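Notebook entry, structure prediction.
Reason for the run: the old model in the group folder had no record of what sequence produced it. Starting over properly, with the input documented here first.
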Amino acid sequence: MKLDRKSFSQKLIVSLAVIILIAFAVSGYITYRIHLNLFTEEISEQFSKTNEQAAARLDLQIRDIYRISNFIVFHPYVQQVLERSAQTEQRETFTQLSDQDELNKLLFQVKYDEPKLTAMYLYDVKENGFSFAGTNTYSTQLTKEAFSHIKSSLDGSFGNLIWFPLQLPSSNAASGYQTFFAAARQMKTVQQNPYGIMIMLFDQSLISEYLIDLVKDDQANVFLYDKMDNLVYSDVSELNAAPKPGSVINRSIGHVDNEQYLYAKSRSGQVDFTLISRVSLDSLQSRSGIILQVNLLIGIISLLLTVVLVIWAGSRLLRPLRELVQGMTRMKAGDMRTRVEVRSDDELGFMARSFNSMAEHVDSLIKEVYERQLSEREAELTALQAQLNPHFLHNTLDSIYWMVYLKDDKETAGLIVSLSDMLRYALEPAETDTTLYDEFSQIRNYLNIQNHRFGHQLESIVKMEEGIERMPIPRLILQPLVENVFVHAFTEKSSAQVLVIRAYSADASDNVTAHPVPAIIIEIIDNGKGMSDEMIRKVIGAAEASRGQITSSEDTPGKDKRRRNHIGIRSVIRRLNLLYGEPYGLRIESEVGIGTTFRVILPLGGEADDR
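New structure, fully documented this time:
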């Protein structure tokens, strides 16, 4: 993936940007939904209160209409005029005009108490009518069709005032027709005997002015029903779209044409009218989308700000990490001396310290391996110091052996065989291991030659514990120590010379090893002149001081004689330390005039522990 090939800082920037974007998107959506719910609840409560207030004001207005209606219906003069009109078959014009004039005087105050009254019609039981104009100057005629409709609607009304919209011809309207609110009732006596019909026409503003607060929104509608659930008023032209009052619950949400509407329902306390209003929730909630947009905008701005801050902070906080990567790159290229600066005590500081420790350890291991190789080379050069042409010398010794053997000088021939075996053994690579048995065989060859030199004055004892003959040990590790005995220990000794060489295994409880590990102990004990403690320290110190140096026959002239003579011991000490380390190695115990003990401690099996 492309993201895998980007740097850590780039991945960090991208990750934080995505996290912040998701966080703001989720929080913005949650905030929007919470706001939407709270907004809907608040709007629902306010809308319901507005609806209740409008219903209360309508109730007061309609109660005035009922009061006017009762005043007219139960007025004795009005009842007298209509009953007399119904009893007269043919009314005289004068009488009719006189009654009309008297009724006008009676109803004069009514016209001014209710300015929205457009016209009033009073009919007797024989449908003889009286009309009264309101405060409007234009005329309105009640058609026969309208009267027939009103009369049929009054059947079963039991004298109650009924309301309904009515469209009539009007000189005031450009279309020639105008919609009015009609309020009609049967006129009955106290004994409930009908004596006429009263019809009042009102301008639409009678109701609409109280509902204007409910229809401020383009997506809002109102519906007014009388106590018999007949639709009295609505701003919706399609009356079949009006909801049924019984199916609407106050502060409920309904759907019309896949659009959500919030409904409010109120019932007047006096005239028992029902006012239902609704407003489109989708239209209201669409205005709340600005909150979601603001949250997204804030998220984008925060995202950009975060990228800038992460780049700035990353250049400071991730600087140790970059230096660590650069150090690893230099180390990979072979610069083992590279180190990084530790700038803090946090996790990055711990990584820097660990890297420095690892680099130092790797550098130390490389030097140790290099010095081990130098030590092996030094041992090989030491073993071959006198060799000019070893193969030629070996063949020459073989020829001399057969010449001496043919002259029946078997003792000398045996010495030549011992020398030839030693030479062949020494020609093997110094870095290859051998067995304890083969190493002791070469020591016996060397002692065979020395026995002919010292005669009966030399007593040599070579012992090996059974079962360890095949244990692997470094090649030529004992030869330099045995040579040191004859070169130094026995040079000034005229009395009997005793040399003991023994090998045995020591378990974990052996006091010699000083560590609970199995080991092979090889002791070389002589009764020579011995060494002082100072001399032992100088020999061991010279071995430590010469680490990493290559000593050959070319650099011996002009050097200190002691350093040259003890080169074999130094080589053994360094080889054992490089190969095994503590607790293995060479231990020297000596006392002047008594003798010296070289104790070689090797791991049982030929390999040391990982420790």
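Summary: Residues 508-513, 548-564 have pLDDT under 50 and may be disordered.
The old model has been moved to the deprecated folder.
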